[in-house]
TrEMBL record:
SUPFAM superfamilies recorded: vWA-like (SSF53300)
Pfam families: VWA_CoxE (PF05762)
Domain of life: Bacteria
Classification via PANTHER family: OUTER MEMBRANE LOLAB LIPOPROTEIN INSERTION APPARATUS, OUTER-MEMBRANE LIPOPROTEIN LOLB
Organism listed in the record: Amycolatopsis albispora
Domain VWFA stretches: 204-363
Transmembrane portions of the chain: none
Stated name of the protein: VWFA domain-containing protein
Amino acid sequence: MTDSTRWRLVLGEQATPHAGPLADEHAERDAALDWLYGRDPERAERGERRGGSGPSELTTVDWLDGIHRLFPRATVERLERDAVERYEIHDVVTDPRVLARIEPNPTLLRAILRTKHLMHQGVLTQARRIVETVVAELIAKLAVEIGQALSGTRTRRPSRFRQARDFDFHGTIRANLAHYRPATGRIAIESPRFVARTRRHAERWQLVLLVDQSASMAGSVIHAAVTAACLWRVPGLATHLVAFDTELADLTTEVTDPVELLMKVQLGGGTDIARAVAYAATLIENPRRAIVAVISDFFEGGNEQELVRSVAKLTGQGTRVLGLAALDEEANPVYHRELAQRLANAGARVGAMTPGELAGFVAERIAR
């Protein structure tokens, strides 16, 4: 590829008088990019040609076939993501011919959850195949991450068995401080300590996942469903999953089938976090052995004062409350920081976690 061709592709059609016209596959690449990015309102304001105009308009099927032939996989994934998320080209997920051609991926799964209300039964069947594929991949990946977080937990009871993996570093330091040698700056270890790896399950713990169904929380909804499925069989832990907007849907009985669960979730609508937290309080059996994870962007449509009071009441009785602005692999949220701070002031631990980090947090509490 010549420098002039490269600059023409970067700068667009307006650069043709200076860089010359494109030919062959370069022209096809330019047309494919213009079909998508020509929709940008800023281009119309500048008087540039918009994609999708004229008698030779590409269909979404033609466009998908073209980009898979013209671009490397990483570029294709970016183009598909922009088509779905940036330009909301709904026929990417509502046209069965398109669904048959597109590669299943998390972006497509989020789009299906947002638009499945637009799909007729035949399209839903195609969409379910994609949901099954992506969920299976997520479970395979997250099960390892969550399993590692759970398998590493230990009780703090001393152990007679001396194994390197059970070495209690902090306990050993505390037990041997009397043998500190100032001259060398070292501690002589005379009594190494080890801890038991077995867990105590005499009293059951509860984990209540409250998941905001706002459209912006689609990624967290998906990961919450998969995380609940992975945690369902953890000994000594009862996992609840509740989806909410202005209404509540207790999906606990569905957690063993995350595909069916996700096909029932309805993204969008208002948000009443206070109502969800109040419902979670009714599920708790032993407040000091319960964790309530509120997965939301904290843009509350209900009563903020009631929400803060409910969280303060839960934390006051010994329940661990997590305010998670994101539960996904990136854990990079956009959320209402003022309300999140008020919840933190009420005793909640507020932030964002990956599913593995949440599993680790739960496992550490169970093991104590």
